[in-house]
């Protein structure tokens, strides 16, 4: 609403006095025969001068700029003024000032001084305020138009006094309140326009009394209630516009009595019920809009009686049933919109009779069957949308006959067959959407003839072959989406001709080629997705040439090399995904320049070194995934500045030090995954304040201490994993921890709680986080910094030596290394230390073994391989630090009668499966492969749950696949392969042989009762595989991957009873690899 303008009060006051004196007073008092001298007050009539005064007074109330538009309004004859019309008696009958920029109100216009007014038109101005009730005194008024202003307030009921009114237009204002019932008095009214206001309440029944009505428009208000049945009385009505309200109830059958109706617009309401069949009586109807309601039931066949219909829009309802064949009678129909309903059945072939049709949209229904061939008869069709149905069959060749077609959308159906070459005839086509079908064959070269095409979407089909070279002819192409097909070959060079192309999706195909060729061909890219293909090479360097790029996804390809620092020039990037490639080097610091980035995914590569602190400057970042790399160093504290982060995934790296407390500031964080790292210290209490956190993974780290009490308030947490740490104390009382399986908190030191697999918490444990002793504090400081840890090893060792006595821990110098268990002062086992002895001259006599173990264990990480924590190198003594496994070695277990009996068949088979898994990973999952060379029961360590972990990698070798691998003897007699007697060549079959010996040692134990049920099958299979591993010819031994797969498969049952199985059945002389 326009504000009330400021006026110059002194000038206008003087102007008003002059008008009053010279126009009113002087003529009345100076003439002896003036009306005031001759007439009494009761018979006094208005003069022509009084009309002029009323108009001048109103002009004076308007703002200054408006008054300049009315400069002709002066002391001259008012019938000559702009916008004024008079009758022969010089009485004002017309006031027509539409669209001249009037600004002001109607309150300054004295309607009682304009009794002869017939037409009042002030439309399309800047008039504000209310409609004065005095307007009801204009008894001769036939036309009132104040539309397109800023009027507010209610429609005065006095409008009902304008009995001569024929046209009333109050549209496009800010009027509120109800439509007055007194409007029913306007029996001569033919046109009522109240649309685009804020009127409320219901449509008054009295509207039905206006039998002269031809036009009624109440659209775009807040009207409620039902459409009154009395509306059926308006037999002369030609247009009825009630759209964009909140009308409810059903469409009254009485609508069918409006035989003169040409336009019926009831869309965008809350109408319910069925489509009234009586609408079929409206033979003059040219436009029927009922869309965006909640109409149900079927489309009545009577719709076919509306032969004059040009536009039919029934979309976005709940209509069901089939499309009536009678719709083919609508020979004048140009637009047919039935989309977003629940229509079923086939598309009637009678649709082909709608020869005038230009727009056909039947999308988002449940239509089935094939596309009728008759659709090719719709020669004037511009848009055809049949998408999101259940259509089957092929795309008919006849589609190529629709030469005026601009948009063809058949996506999300079950169409089969190939894309017809006749589609090349559609020279006006701009949009072709065929995605999400089952189309097969190649993309036809004729697509290149669609020179007007801007949008091509063929994704999620079964298309094969290459992208046609003719696609380079599509100079206007903006979007190319062919993802999720089986396309092969390279991207055609002609694509560089598509200079308008800005959105490209080629992902999930089998395309190949050097990645730089893609970027060079598409300089104007905004959105590019190439994931899940076979693109190779190093990432493009010239990022400044792609200034508009916002999204780049090239995951799951064969990219290599570094991420170039020049990527920081692509400053418009919002999403960057380079995951699952072979990228090396460091995460570039220049990524910090991509301030608009909200998704950064670099997971599953071979990136190394620290996470750059510049990542913390990405204030828009919501998703950060650096998992599955070789990143080291601390988690950057500056990540706490990425306050919009929702997902933070740093798992499967070598990150160390403590979890920074700054992560507790990420209040929008939903998923936090820091598992499988070397993180130490305690869990920061701030993590428990992340109220939006849903999943938390801190497993496989070196965390210790109590779980913070703040975790008790994590109500959103649904999944948690804290396994394989050194945590203690009670589990939090939250649903996530209560519902967590044993695997989610296993392999910690002294966790307690109400779960069956945990001991109950004592009072001391429950309050332990408040009364932790000095030794725990010392230990946390030692573990938190790796350098201090190794510096302290010697101190702790000497303390233990002094405490226990030299004789108790005197090492065996002949072995050059010893294993010591390091305890804290309260007797709690923390880590295992392997000590290497130096010779008298200070040189390390077993340097090769020491360095070999470090090199090997830093390259591999597996749940069945002992976890390497660090090392300390010194001329006299060097140390390797490991996770301590409380169960001891398998050799110790098997040597002790009591402990051997505790290793039942299930646990023994798990040992065999675990070791086969670890060796399969070392031989086939590492690059280069790792050969252990010293597998024995002494080098298999068990945890408290008797889970096996392979240890002692001092003799391990990284297998060079491109050269010979010869060495001196290594291993344990009885486990070493026999070929080592005549050759020193290292290969994975040495480990296979040792595994076979170890397996037989594990399962051939008479002390255990005979296996039963599933254990029988597993033991027989293990023995059979072990004997295969012991074949004299190394080439005849299975690979560890084959062994692991065989042990993992579901068993099919024994062919013979367990006790009846012979050695011959266990031996298999077949040599598949010979």
UniProtKB/TrEMBL annotation:
Record's bilayer topology term = Single-pass type I membrane protein
Concerning SMART domains, the annotation shows: LRR_TYP
Q: Which residues cross the membrane?
A: 777-799
BP GO terms, sorted: defense response; post-embryonic development; response to other organism
What Pfam family is a match, any one? LRR_8
An example molecular function term from Gene Ontology annotations: ATP binding
Q: Which keywords label this protein?
A: ATP-binding, Glycoprotein, Kinase, Leucine-rich repeat, Membrane, Nucleotide-binding, Receptor, Repeat, Serine/threonine-protein kinase, Signal, Transferase, Transmembrane, Transmembrane helix
List where in the cell it is found.
Membrane
Q: Which GO terms describe its cellular component?
A: membrane
Protein's name in the database:
non-specific serine/threonine protein kinase
List the source organism.
Rhododendron griersonianum
Residue intervals of the Protein kinase domain: 793-1074
């Amino acid at each position: 609403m326009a504000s009330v303008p400021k006026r110059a009060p002194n000038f206008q006051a003087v102007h008003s006095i002059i008008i009053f004196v010279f126009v009113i007073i002087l003529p009345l008092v100076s003439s002896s025969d003036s009306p005031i001298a001759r007439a009494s007050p009761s018979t006094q009539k208005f003069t022509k001068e009084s009309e002029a005064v009323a108009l001048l007074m109103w002009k004076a109330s308007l703002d200054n700029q408006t008054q300049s538009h009315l400069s002709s309004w002066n002391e001259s004859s008012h019938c000559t003024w702009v916008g004024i019309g008079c009758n022969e008696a010089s009485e004002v009958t017309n006031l027509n000032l539409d669209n001249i920029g009037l600004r002001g109100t109607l309150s300054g216009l004295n309607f009682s001084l304009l009794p002869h007014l017939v037409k009042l038109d002030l439309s399309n101005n800047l008039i504000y305020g209310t409609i004065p009730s005095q307007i009801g005194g204009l008894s001769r008024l036939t036309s009132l138009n104040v539309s397109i202003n800023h009027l507010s307030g209610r429609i005065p009921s006095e409008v009902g006094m304008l009995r001569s009114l024929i046209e009333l237009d109050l549209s496009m204002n800010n009027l509120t309140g109800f439509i007055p019932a007194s409007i029913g008095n306007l029996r001569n009214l033919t046109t009522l326009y109240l649309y685009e206001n804020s009127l409320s309440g219901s449509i008054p029944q009295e509207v039905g009394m206006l039998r002269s009505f031809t036009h009624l428009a109440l659209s775009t208000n807040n009207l409620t209630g039902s459409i009154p049945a009395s509306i059926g009385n308006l037999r002369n009505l030609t247009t009825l516009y009630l759209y964009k309200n909140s009308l409810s109830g059903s469409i009254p059958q009485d609508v069918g009595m409006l035989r003169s109706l040409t336009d019926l617009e009831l869309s965008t309401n809350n109408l319910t019920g069925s489509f009234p069949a009586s609408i079929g009586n409206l033979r003059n109807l040219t436009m029927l809009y009922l869309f965006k309601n909640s109409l149900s039931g079927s489309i009545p066949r009577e719709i076919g009686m509306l032969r004059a219909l040009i536009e039919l829009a029934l979309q976005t309802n709940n209509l069901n049933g089939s499309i009536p064949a009678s719709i083919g009678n609508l020979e004048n129909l140009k637009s047919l919109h039935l989309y977003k309903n629940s229509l079923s059945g086939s598309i009637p072939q009678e649709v082909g009779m709608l020869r005038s049709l230009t727009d056909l949209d039947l999308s988002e229904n449940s239509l089935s069957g094939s596309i009728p061939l008759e659709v090719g008869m719709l020669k004037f069709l511009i848009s055809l949308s049949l998408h999101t149905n259940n259509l089957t069959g092929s795309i008919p060749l006849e589609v190529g006959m629709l030469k005026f077609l601009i948009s063809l959308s058949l996506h999300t159906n079950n169409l089969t067959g190939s894309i017809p070459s006749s589609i090349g005839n559609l020279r006006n086509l701009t949009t072709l959407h065929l995605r999400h079908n089952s189309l097969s064959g190649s993309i036809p070269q004729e697509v290149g003839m669609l020179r007007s095409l801007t949008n091509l979407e063929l994704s999620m089909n079964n298309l094969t072959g290459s992208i046609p070279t003719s696609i380079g002819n599509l100079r206007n192409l903006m979007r190319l989406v062919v993802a999720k097909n089986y396309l092969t070959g390279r991207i055609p060079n002609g694509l560089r001709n598509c200079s308008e192309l800005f959105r490209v999706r080629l992902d999930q195909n089998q395309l190949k080629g050097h990645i730089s060729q893609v970027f060079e061909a598409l300089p104007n890219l905004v959105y590019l997705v190439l994931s899940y293909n076979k693109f190779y090479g190093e990432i493009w360097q010239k990022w400044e040439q792609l200034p508009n790029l916002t999204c780049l996804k090239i995951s799951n390809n064969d990219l290599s090399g570094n991420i170039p620092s020049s990527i920081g020039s692509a400053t418009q990037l919002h999403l960057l995904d380079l995951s699952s490639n072979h990228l090396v080097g460091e995460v570039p610091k220049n990524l910090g320049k991509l301030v608009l980035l909200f998704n950064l995914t670099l997971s599953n590569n071979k990136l190394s070194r620290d996470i750059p602190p510049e990542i913390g400057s990405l204030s828009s970042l919501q998703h950060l995934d650096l998992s599955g790399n070789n990143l080291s160093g601390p988690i950057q504290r500056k990540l706490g500045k990425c306050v919009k982060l929702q997902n933070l995934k740093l798992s499967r790296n070598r990150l160390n030090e403590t979890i920074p407390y700054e992560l507790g500031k990420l209040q929008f964080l939903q998923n936090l995954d820091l598992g499988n790292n070397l993180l130490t210290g305690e869990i920061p209490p701030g993590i428990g304040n992340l109220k939006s956190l849903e999943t938390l993974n801190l497993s496989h780290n070196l965390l210790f201490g109590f779980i913070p009490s703040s975790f008790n308030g994590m109500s959103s947490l649904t999944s948690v994993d804290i396994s394989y740490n050194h945590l203690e104390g009670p589990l939090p009382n939250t649903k996530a921890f209560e519902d967590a399986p044993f695997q989610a908190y296993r392999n910690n030191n002294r966790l307690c709680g109400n779960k069956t697999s945990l001991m109950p918490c004592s009072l001391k444990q429950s309050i332990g986080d408040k009364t932790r002793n000095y030794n725990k504090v010392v230990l946390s400081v030692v573990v938190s910094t790796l350098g201090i840890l190794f510096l302290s090893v010697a101190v702790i060792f000497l303390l233990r030596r002094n405490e226990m006595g030299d004789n108790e821990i005197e090492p065996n110098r002949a072995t050059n290394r010893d294993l010591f268990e390091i305890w804290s002062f309260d007797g709690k086992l923390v880590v295992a230390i392997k000590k290497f002895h130096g010779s008298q001259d200070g040189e390390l006599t077993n340097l090769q073994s020491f360095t070999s173990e470090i090199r090997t264990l830093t390259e591999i990480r597996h749940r069945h391989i002992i976890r390497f924590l660090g090392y300390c190198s010194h001329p006299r003594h060097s140390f390797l630090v490991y996770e301590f496994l409380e169960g001891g070695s398998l050799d110790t277990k098997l040597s002790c009668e009591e402990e051997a009996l505790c290793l039942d068949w299930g646990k023994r088979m798990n040992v065999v499966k675990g070791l086969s898994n670890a060796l399969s990973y070392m031989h086939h999952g590492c690059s280069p492969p790792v050969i252990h060379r010293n597998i024995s029961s002494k080098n298999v360590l068990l945890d408290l749950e008797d889970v096996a972990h392979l240890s002692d990698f001092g003799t391990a070798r990284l297998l060079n696949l491109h050269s010979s691998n010869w060495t001196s003897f290594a291993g344990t007699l009885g486990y070493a392969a026999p070929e080592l007697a005549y050759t020193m060549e290292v290969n994975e079959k040495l480990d296979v042989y040792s595994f076979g010996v170890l397996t037989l040692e594990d399962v051939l134990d008479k002390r255990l009762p005979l296996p039963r049920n599933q254990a029988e099958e597993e033991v027989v299979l293990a023995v059979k595989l072990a004997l295969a591993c012991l074949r004299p010819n190394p080439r005849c031994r299975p690979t560890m991957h084959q062994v692991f797969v065989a042990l993992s498969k579901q068993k099919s049952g024994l062919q013979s009873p367990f006790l009846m199985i012979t050695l011959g059945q266990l031996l298999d002389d077949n040599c598949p690899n010979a």
